[in-house]
Amino acid sequence: MTNSTVLLRDRALAFRSLHVPGRPLILPNAWDLASALLVEDAGAGAVATTSAGVAWALGAADGDRLGRERALGAVAEIAGAVRVPVTADIESGYAEDPAGVGDTVRAVLAAGAVGVNIEDGLYGAGQGPLRPTAEQAERLAAARGAADAAGVPLFVNARVDTFLRGAGGVDDTLERAAAYLAAGADGIFVPGAVDPGTVRELVDGIDAPLNVMAGPGAPPAGELAALGVARVSAGSGIAQAAHALVRRAARELLDTGTYDAQTGGLEYDTLNALMSGGR
């Protein structure tokens, strides 16, 4: 086993240990090197990428429109700069078939990440909102097999888009979750489900760490912890807030010539030190 594999294995094991029901891993998702360094500097135990944020930062739309090479280039840059484990949102796997998903996972490991999100939602004309369960299970099994063959206990977080796409309720979600876990997933991610009663049903019905996506209007992380959630992530929410600030500041400067939106910005020296490694 090479030194790089040992390092990845140790980071993967450390990342796995952070998924504790009732004491969830909190992930303020990053989308570029600067945001990743800021998230780490704020005290996060790991850095998770947001596929939407990464796509926007690279000039592409979200929804399987960014190629594997460009997406994982951003992941590699982040993983090479932070000290904590990195988990990559790889959309539906940047591949047409299970073999391609395995190739993507090998590239994820080469980039230095020790976790992935793989979603079952579909994009494009003529497609249903969700990939058939059996087909998605095959893709997850390919991801698991590629990681196991590399000797790295990659944390495979299977995203179930039933609630996000309005394509099913608790029973449909539990059915998919069971199939995905049987295929080798380690955790289940159900974005769009934040109602406390629903979250409790999902926690009780899924034999694995549950990840929910939270933002304005969702219960605080402490309440989600009390329900038994093991992972709370922000998705693209922080990236959206950052871009909204850019738009407000630009419009204010152009329309009124004033600068109020820039109030509270980070000091130049603080950001410069962070980017130069002076943390």
From TrEMBL:
Q: Which Gene Ontology molecular-function terms are recorded?
A: lyase activity
- Which keywords label this protein? Lyase
PANTHER family per record: CARBOXYPHOSPHONOENOLPYRUVATE PHOSPHONOMUTASE-LIKE PROTEIN (AFU_ORTHOLOGUE AFUA_5G07230), PHOSPHOENOLPYRUVATE CARBOXYLASE
Q: What is the official name of this protein in its record?
A: Isocitrate lyase/phosphoenolpyruvate mutase family protein
Q: Which organism does this record belong to? A: Streptomyces atrovirens
